[in-house]
Amino acid sequence: MLPDADELPEVLLDLAVPHEDINALVALRDRLWADAEARWLLDRCVDAVVRDMGTVGRGGRVPALPEAWGELGRCFFVYVYVAVLAHVRAYHRDRGITDDVSRRTLADLGRHMAVHRRAYGSRGLVVPDWPGLHFRGELYQLGRLQFQRAVLGARMGGATRAAGHAAGPGDPCLNLHITGFGGPLTPTACERSVSMAREFFARHFPEDRYETAVCHSWLLDPQLRTRLPADSNIVRFQERFRLADGYGREPEDGDPVAFVFGARDLPVAQLPRRTGVERAVGDHLRAGGHWYGGHGWFPL
Hints:
This protein is of the alpha+beta class. The protein has 13 helices and 6 strands. A 6-stranded mixed beta sheet has the order 1-2-3-4-6-5.
C-alpha cells in the first residue's frame, strides 16, 4: 500500500507536501521499509484507520514512537496516511464526493507539515493524529472552512436544546474548524463555506440530519471583541454563534499564540505587533490577561 521510491514524490505533491520535504521523505521511506518494527507498526496503524473508515469518533490514540527513530518518528504518520490514500479515495468515490473536494481535503496533510516547520523548523506533524480525521472520512474542506462529522455532547447539546433548537445531546452535528494559511476569514468566505456544507452533507451523508454547526476555539473568546474593531473578520465570525455555558474556564494562552505566531512557547514579551490580531493577542497577555477557549453553535 506504500508507494515505492519512484512513485512517492508524485503522491506527496498531490497531498501538498512542501517541495523541500519531498526528497527527505523518499529517503526516509527506504529506512522505514528496511526496519521490521516500523513496517509492523505501519501495518497496524493503517489497519486501524481503514477499519474505522467513515465511522464518527473512532479515532484511536497514536502510539508512542521510539526516540531513536528521530525524523522517521516525526514523519511516521505521513507514511500512514499515504498508505491509506487509496482507501479513503475509494470511500469518497462510493459516497459520490467529487475529486476536487477529496483533493482539497486530503491536501491538508501538507499544510500540517508546513505548520510543523513554522513551529519547529523541521519536518513532521505537530499533532500526528489530527489528519486521521481527513483520512477516515470524518472531516472535509469546503471552501475556507473545514467541517467534521460529529455528535452533540451533553454540554453543547444541552445548550442547543435549552435554546429551543431541534437537535440535542447525541444528535449529529458539524464541528467547524478554521485553518491557518487559508486566506482571510471574511464573512463572504464563511457564508459560502456554510452554504456548501448544507448541500454537501445532505447529498453525501443523507442518513444523518445535520441541523447544527458547533465550534470550539479561542476565536470565540468574547474578550477579542474588546481588542479588535467591530468590523474585523474575527468579530464578524463570532457573531454567527450562540455561546454555550458549562465549559471549564482554564486559561488556554498557548492556542492563540501557536495559531497567530507559529509556536506555543514563544516569550510573550517578544511577540510581534505587526497586525491587529498580533497586537490583540500579545498585548492582552502582556497586560496580564489570559485567553480562553470559546464554545458556540448556530442552527444550520
